[in-house]
Design goal:
CATH architecture of the largest domain: 3-Layer(aba) Sandwich
Largest sheet: 6 strands, parallel
Protein name: L-carnitine dehydratase/bile acid-inducible protein F
Region (Disordered): 356-387
Low-confidence stretches: 1-10
CATH class of the largest domain: Alpha Beta
Mean pLDDT: 95
CATH superfamily of the largest domain: Crotonobetainyl-coa:carnitine coa-transferase, domain 1
Keywords: Transferase
Number of helices: 18
Shape: elongated
GO molecular function: CoA-transferase activity
Strand order of the largest sheet: 5-2-1-6-7-8
Amino acid sequence: MVGEARDSEGDAGPLDGLTVLDASRVLVGPFCTMQLGDLGAEVIKVERPGEGDQTRTWRPPAFGEGDDAQSAYYASVNRNKRSVELNLASDAGRAVFRDLACEADVIVENFRVGKMADWGLDYPDLVEENPGLIYCAISGYGEWGPDRDEPAYDIMMQARGGFMSITGEEGGAPVRIGVALADVGAGMYATQAILAALLERELGDGAGQKIDVSLLDGQAAWTSYMAANYFASGEPPGRMGSKHPNITPYQAFETRDGYVVVACASDAFWPRLCEALDRPDLLADERFETNEKRVRNRDALDPALDAAFAELTTAEALDRLGEHGVPASPVRDMAEVFDDPQLAARGMVAEFDHPTAGPMRVPGSPMHFSRTPTTARRHPPSLGEHTEAVLREYGYGDGDLAELKNRGAIPDR
């Protein structure tokens, strides 16, 4: 429980001393619990014996080779955790889970709605023995509403939640955003909600509570100004490629050898852009003198800017824009992103020496604290790597472990 210091294997993070029981899998839950682990919490990842998290099989690519290889997808969201194989379909396995839950500050799960209740492991089943428990359930549609039992996958959520209606080129097919945004977004909301509940528990009477987070709710919330544009105008926004509905020029332009992104987010940048492109005629054109006029007349402005950038290489365009103080960037691939000196200075690559898969590199934590830093303390664990060690910490002896193996609660290996 909170306040009980544990071995942090390095500098203590802001959540040092808290225990998280992670009964989630795939992306949304593991992304949430990885953030809690980065912040210093002790995270115990409960996995199905012999199979584990589905993402362990989502390869290639992988770190390492053969049976010891670790899926890159799995590794991306499972650092700072210990893996315990536990069969929740068995009575003995559920009893062990309840023992672990009695000592936990937080439980995170993303089983289908109602599954944990069927097992007797839902919040009402656990809170009597652990009144301070924060229990976070993550699902596709939430625990109430007409669609609570429907299947949910990220691409479905991006479609149903509106993002695919505004992603892609004008007149083109709808496009899924390249990362599972619905999962990552809901995982961030879950983390935020857990931290708020922990704070309320400490400031209040010590009581915990249940949190319900859904992927669809997260997508609806993330539509933000696009939804507000619809509410204000009555017109659903459509696909605009990289363009912005409220600002222009704020988009990607094709050059002779690639693309450059320009962000004229205020009227102060407009004269500088015209000077950089040697287009005094655009600066003198009253149709473009304010952002509002440029937005209203973008059909006339865009072709002129397209033609100007088409005469330049990406390097030439960036040089000119930089000289005139116009915000701009190349469009980078992953290799270029993680070769960036700025990201290196910020420690945005976490490196591990995995005991079977060898060297690993994954994105680091973007949260930086002056006194209680985030850390990458533990490699993404192999399946069941810590089963016996964790159970022994909770009082299970040799005889208890042998009995759990006999009853099919933990693997016998």
